[in-house]
Design brief:
The complex is a heterodimer of chains A (170) and B (111). Chain A has 170 residues and is α+β, with helices and mostly antiparallel strands. Helix content of chain A is 41%, strand content 28%. Chain A has a domain of 118 residues: Jelly Rolls (Sandwich). Chain A is built from five helices and eight strands; from the N terminus they run H-H-E-E-E-E-E-E-E-E-H-H-H. In chain A, strand 4 and strand 5 form a beta hairpin. In chain A, helix 3 crosses helix 4. Chain A is globular, with a radius of gyration of 20 Å. The model of chain A has no long low-confidence stretch (mean pLDDT 90). With 111 residues, chain B is mostly helical. Chain B has two domains: 60 residues; 50 residues. Helix content of chain B is 80%, strand content 0%. Chain B is built from four helices and no strands. Classes of the chains: A alpha+beta (170), B mainly alpha (111). At the A-B interface, strand 4, strand 5 and helix 4 of A face helix 2 and helix 3 of B.
């Protein structure tokens, strides 16, 4: 497992002994194609690193009479997911499902925190990398949202009725 | 005579106590009934919230015309294609933020 985790972008540059500490608390978990690893709104107890296969991060959306999942990101080996397990309120904000038979290593929040309490330097490095991951996600979705707003600005006919009415008054 | 008065007083106090106990019990029953009623109304809402993840994950397939289902699938494919194209566009913004990189144009898929 250590070899697999070594390739994870989150653990790049970690010392061998730190990697061993993390490996000791990791649990391998296999997923069948189509199986869900996490569900939007679910309790986020574990943080994951993908070691094999491919997972999709999805947003549920009502389509017709069904609620369907729209894939917004694909993640493969070396990528991490489930940082909601490390940030209050510890609830997942996306769902993730395996596109093909896949494998992840799960790290329980409690076990990670225990390791970081014993090794604060490792905790610092880990959370610096996690903040980078969260920052990229935030910037990506912020940019996506602004681009959609711009499209809306270009098509006022699609504005909500209230907004159109108040615009008409100006 | 005094003994009779004392007994009468005790009798009145006891009767008052019994009436008060009945009244309080009646009020409690009313309150309980109102509580039950409220619980009955709230329960489905709480249940739906606690079931949210499963609700989202287990796709609810309603019997629908194949044409409608195909249309939904096509819409999902279009949305996912749009997200992919947009993500590709904003990747440059994330690594090198600027107005140009933010508003780069994609080939419109959802117009």
């Amino acid at each position: 497992m250590e070899q697999l985790l070594k390739q994870a972008e989150l653990f790049e540059g970690l010392r061998e002994e730190d990697l061993s500490r993390l490996t000791a608390i990791g649990r391998r978990q296999a997923l069948r194609a189509g199986e869900y690893l996490i569900l939007l709104g679910g309790d986020a107890l574990d943080f994951y690193v993908v070691t094999k296969g491919k997972l999709e991060l999805c947003f549920p959306m009502p389509i017709g009479a069904d609620v369907r999942d729209i894939a917004v990101e694909s993640i493969g080996p070396g990528k991490a997911l489930g940082w909601s397990a490390l940030v209050r309120p510890y609830r997942f904000t996306l769902s993730a499902r395996a596109v093909e038979p896949s494998e992840v290593v799960a790290f329980a929040r409690r076990a990670l925190i225990d390791v970081f309490e014993r090794e604060p330097r490792l905790g610092y490095t880990f959370f610096m990398k996690i903040s980078e991951l969260i920052g990229i996600r935030l910037e990506t979705f912020q940019a996506l949202w602004v681009r959609e707003l711009r499209r809306l600005a270009e098509r006022p006919s699609e504005w909500p009725r209230g907004a159109e009415a108040s615009r008409g008054r100006q | 005579m005094d003994a009779m008065r004392l007994l009468g007083f005790i009798g009145i106090v006891l009767a008052g106590g019994v009436i008060m106990a009945f009244a309080l019990e009646f009020l409690n029953t009313e309150r309980r009934a109102r509580g039950e009623h409220r619980r009955v109304k709230v329960a489905p809402a709480v249940q739906s919230v606690t079931e949210l993840p499963a609700f989202f994950a287990k796709l609810r397939h309603v019997d629908r015309a194949p044409a409608e289902a195909a249309l939904d699938d096509a819409l999902i494919a279009l949305l996912e294609e749009h997200v992919r194209a947009e993500r590709a566009m904003v990747t440059k913004f994330v690594h090198s933020p600027s107005l140009d990189s933010l508003y780069r144009q994609t080939t419109p898929t959802l117009n």
